[in-house]
């Protein structure tokens, strides 16, 4: 028998169905709450208790530390799949056959040029501009060069739009970095794989033959996979809500990039390294910063610690920690900032404050460390996150449009002034 929830307000009882997901998660379906109760709504700032949609893309269990894309565990995908396969899986729901993967790869390569006029837009930005702002603007500017909304009822139109952005986004991301470094823009090389090509577009020198490094590319591939989706987080919810107004895919993605920029979300990986550098400059006293993080009078937080949903461990952090150790060892990197990171993690993991609140290093703590070891500039870290999250955002946007979800429009409880008559300037 299907479960129901009963709500009692002032002696009146209202019944609501309880829906059950495939992983036995339960949700009270309150779609009829306002109409049944005569306008009573719910209040849940930060949406800690609110499900915004039913989704078949990513399952995570924060208590058990489970993360699965379309049913496949993140551990298996990180070990056995490559980023393009995972992107296909997330977007279209199944792992691609060899033929489908080959076509996806070829179609992306076919679209991997960006209109030359886009360079003039990039030119207009100062070199000091944050790459996330530039990337969000360039993604938005792409609309002007690819006008017309996507016909979401046409599989082909949807596929073409997806392939286009999968192809052009890495070019734009790499260009934001090259602009900062005064390097000539690079269109990459279609003979390379998706991730290798991204690395080439970022790091190639005009007077030097590009040499791929397997350790670096494998680490990048894994990082992109680990970041590829994470259900209804801040940036993904942004993409879905912007898309729910029937704004196009590129406009929705551009908004998602802005949401990801913040230090409480994707910006955390940059904030981690900045924090570690500040600790180093201040003499490397980790105990002092642990004490600051615990002090309620001090706004300082240990960046890269804690997570809204993972309250035991972040499965991505587990994978990436092992990968970080491997990459640092293989590349023979010694860096005092990385030593501070290790020290900080050790102390925090044993400290009662962090243990009690279940604050563990999250994926951003270790991803920042690997990016630094790979020579990626700190301000590009969040761009790397965006590159990984792209297929997740696309998958969520596609799902939202295919399910014909209504426009996102939350309610509020008004707490401002009640009616008061207008006073002219002389009366105030
Ligand atoms: N350092 C010190 N104390 C912390 C930290 C931290 N990093 N994170 C949480 N706390 C404390 C809070 O002060 C609070 O303590 P209290 O109960 O004594 O008041 C308790 O832990 C719970 O914290 P909340 O803020 O309620 O937890 P919430 O789930 O809302 O926030 C968040 C999660 C935003 C990730 C938070 O842990 C944080 O700010 N971490 C640092 C930023 C960061 O690493 N963000 C990356 C997130 S992962 C990602 O986006 C991929």
UniProtKB/TrEMBL annotation:
Gene3D superfamilies: 2.20.28.60, Citrate Synthase, domain 1, Cytochrome P450-Terp, domain 2. It catalyses: oxaloacetate + acetyl-CoA + H2O = citrate + CoA + H(+). PROSITE patterns: CITRATE_SYNTHASE. GO terms for molecular function: citrate synthase activity. Pfam families: Citrate_synt (PF00285). It comes from the Bacteria. InterPro entries: Citrate_synth-like_lrg_a-sub (IPR016142), Citrate_synth-like_sm_a-sub (IPR016143), Citrate_synthase (IPR002020), Citrate_synthase_AS (IPR019810), Citrate_synthase_bac-typ (IPR024176), Citrate_synthase_sf (IPR036969), Citrate_synthase_typ-I (IPR010953). Pathway: Carbohydrate metabolism; tricarboxylic acid cycle; isocitrate from oxaloacetate: step 1/2. The keyword Ribosomal protein does not apply. Keywords: Acyltransferase, Transferase, Tricarboxylic acid cycle. The keyword Kinase does not apply. Belongs to the citrate synthase family. This is Citrate synthase. It comes from Aquimarina rubra. The lineage of its organism: Bacteria, Pseudomonadati, Bacteroidota, Flavobacteriia, Flavobacteriales.
């Amino acid at each position: 028998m299907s479960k129901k929830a009963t709500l009692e307000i002032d002696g009146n009882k209202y019944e609501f169905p309880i829906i059950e997901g495939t992983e036995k998660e339960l949700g009270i379906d309150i779609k009829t709450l306002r109409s049944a109760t005569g306008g009573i709504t719910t209040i849940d700032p930060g949406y800690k208790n609110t499900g915004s949609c039913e989704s078949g893309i990513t399952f995570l269990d924060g208590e058990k530390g489970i993360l699965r894309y379309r049913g496949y565990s993140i551990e298996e995908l990180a070990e056995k799949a490559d980023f393009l396969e995972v992107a296909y899986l997330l977007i279209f729901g199944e792992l691609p056959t060899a033929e489908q993967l080959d076509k996806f790869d070829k179609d992306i390569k076919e679209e991997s040029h960006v209109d030359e006029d886009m360079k003039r837009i990039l030119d207009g930005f100062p070199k000091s501009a944050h790459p996330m702002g530039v990337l969000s603007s360039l993604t938005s500017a792409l609309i002007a060069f690819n006008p017309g909304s996507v016909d979401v009822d046409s599989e082909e139109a949807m596929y073409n739009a997806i392939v286009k952005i999968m192809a052009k986004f890495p070019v734009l991301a790499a260009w934001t970095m090259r602009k900062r470094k005064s390097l000539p823009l690079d269109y990459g090389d279609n003979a390379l794989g998706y991730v290798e090509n991204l690395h080439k577009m970022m790091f190639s020198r005009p007077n030097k033959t590009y040499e791929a490094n397997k350790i670096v590319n494998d680490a990048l591939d894994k990082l992109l996979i680990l970041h590829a989706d994470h259900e209804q987080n801040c940036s993904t919810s942004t993409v879905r809500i912007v898309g729910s107004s029937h704004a196009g895919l590129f406009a929705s993605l551009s908004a998602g990039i802005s949401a990801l920029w913040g230090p409480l979300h994707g910006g955390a990986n940059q904030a981690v390294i900045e924090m570690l550098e500040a600790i180093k400059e201040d003499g490397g006293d980790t105990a002092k910063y642990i004490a600051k993080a615990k002090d309620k009078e001090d706004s300082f937080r240990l960046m890269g610690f804690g997570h809204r949903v993972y309250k035991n461990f972040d499965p991505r952090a587990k994978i990436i920690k092992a990968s970080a150790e491997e990459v640092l060892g293989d590349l023979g990197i010694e860096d005092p900032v990385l030593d501070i990171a290790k020290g900080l993690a050790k102390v925090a993991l044993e400290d009662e404050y962090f243990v009690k609140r279940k604050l563990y290093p999250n994926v951003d703590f270790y991803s920042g460390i690997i990016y630094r070891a790979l020579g990626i500039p700190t301000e590009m870290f969040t761009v790397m996150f965006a590159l990984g999250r792209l297929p997740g955002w696309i998958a969520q946007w596609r799902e939202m449009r295919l399910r014909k979800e209504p426009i996102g429009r939350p309610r509020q409880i008004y707490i401002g002034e009640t009616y008061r008559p207008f006073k002219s300037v002389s009366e105030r």
